[in-house]
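Sample intake sheet
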Amino acid sequence: MDSFELIDLLCVVEDCVSDRSTGHVVAMSKAVEELRVLTGDFVSSDEDAANALTQVALRRGCAVLFDERAGAEITEF
């Protein structure tokens, strides 16, 4: 979380949280993209951004959904 400002992470989590019948859920693909747009950081890895956002989301009492990343390959068996 050192490479991202806490206020940016908080803003993104609050913007991306969706109310569901099961509680507050944050979709990581949307949150990572929002963080990139907000900060202009297109260099950090998706994993680093998702890890930082996940820590903040969990501390805020949100569930985290690790959904499909843009450009990820889907392997069918």
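Comment: The mean pLDDT is 86. Helices lie at 6-16, 28-39, 46-59.
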